[in-house]
UniProtKB/TrEMBL annotation, chain A:
Domain Transcription regulator PadR N-terminal: 15-86
Name of the protein in its database record: Helix-turn-helix transcriptional regulator
Species for this entry: Flavobacterium erciyesense
Highest taxon of source: Bacteria
Pfam families associated with the record: PadR
Gene3D superfamilies: Winged helix-like DNA-binding domain superfamily/Winged helix DNA-binding domain
Record field: transmembrane: none
UniProtKB/TrEMBL annotation, chain B:
Protein name as it appears in the record: DUF1129 family protein
Keywords noted in UniProt: Membrane, Transmembrane, Transmembrane helix
Membrane-spanning intervals of the chain: 91-109, 121-143, 163-180, 186-207
Organism: Flavobacterium erciyesense
Length: 113, 223
């Protein structure tokens, strides 16, 4: 991942947001979707993706479904009910974070005389 | 460009050779590798062997043997990371829960009117422990006989093997729970140890449940 330390804390939220929008997704699909949305700027590696998915599953935020696709099985991840609620909270936190970082990086000049 | 059954089997055997023999992990890793290979063969117009070699090279760090003190065994990194997170979370849950239960016992049972029923409480605890022992033994056998292996079943079998002896000894009264020991420190340690074994065993039973839950999901997929 480019600038991995900057994105590291947001990976779970990114995954949850994608699943909220797309219903259920499989691992490779998540990496490709992120790559497409960011025009190749953000590449999620397998070493980052699967630990994040497994952690979210262990926390009860994600559930899995198995389906047969072509001549193999595919594991889909989807948000649980608790996961949907948690996604709203985390997106709100991330929005606050982005807003605060923007204020810090590009402070608006104050008009004081 | 879709891979053939033989090519899928080649990936499957490679993963097994690298120690990834647990279906809950193997299913998604195999599918990810297969999909990447299909895309490479389509876009780069290369053969399966060339694409497989490139994709596998990218995945090699995830198959590297890795040890975790929480698990106590060495496995491919991707598996160690998953198991480590499960066990660490359970370990912390067990410590917090058993400590809280111990405080409840010592504050509300010891030296209270409920202390009159101490013998009944100890019998109830022993019966609970024996019940857990029975359930763990049954789960152990069912997982051992299961057609599918999962990381949950692996953890359950590895971690519960050691605890079963203590459960049996507690259940038959060889380790009585000294709730009303005059020394409160000894009472605390005795009750806390008993609570820890009970809670941890509950956690192992949850692992067994997750194993059977996954096996049910995978069995519902038509071949």
């Amino acid at each position: 991942m480019k600038n991995s330390q900057l994105y590291k804390g947001s990976l779970n939220t990114i995954i949850m947001k994608l699943l909220e929008e797309n219903g259920k997704m499989y691992g490779y699909e998540i990496t490709q979707k992120v790559k497409a949305i960011t025009a190749g700027e953000l590449n999620i590696t397998e070493g980052a993706l699967y630990p994040a998915l497994h952690k979210l599953e262990a926390e009860g935020i994600l559930d899995v479904e198995i389906e047969k696709v072509d001549n193999r099985m595919r594991k889909y991840y989807k948000l649980t009910e608790a996961g949907e609620k948690e996604t709203i909270n985390r997106l709100s936190e991330l929005e606050d974070f982005i807003r605060n970082m923007q204020s810090l990086v590009n402070p608006k000049p104050s008009l004081e005389f | 460009m879709k891979l053939t059954t033989e090519q899928i089997d080649c990936i499957n055997q490679t993963l097994i050779a690298k120690g990834l023999n647990f279906d809950d992990l193997k299913v998604e890793v195999l599918d990810h590798i297969a999909t990447e290979i299909e895309e490479k063969m389509q876009n780069a117009n290369c053969t399966f062997d060339v694409a497989f070699k490139e994709v596998l090279e990218k995945w090699e760090p995830e198959f590297k043997p890795s040890f975790s003190g929480f698990i106590g065994f060495t496995n491919p990194r991707i598996m160690t990371v998953k198991c480590h997170k499960i066990v660490k979370r359970q370990f912390l849950t067990a410590i917090v829960t058993s400590t809280l239960l111990t405080l409840v016992f010592l504050l509300f049972v010891r030296n209270s009117s409920l202390g009159l029923f101490l013998a009944d409480i100890q019998v109830t605890l022993r019966l609970l422990v024996l019940l857990e022992f029975g359930l763990v033994a049954v789960a152990w056998i069912l997982i051992w006989r299961s057609k599918h292996q999962t990381t949950y079943g692996y953890l359950m079998k590895k971690k519960s093997a050691g605890i079963m002896i203590f459960l049996l000894m507690m259940g038959i009264g060889l380790f009585p729970v000294k709730i009303n020991h005059p020394d409160v420190k000894i009472a605390f340690v005795s009750v806390c140890a008993a609570m820890a074994y009970i809670v941890i065993t509950g956690i192992y039973l949850k692992l067994a449940y997750k194993h059977f839950e996954f096996v049910k999901k995978i069995s519902l997929v038509k071949p």
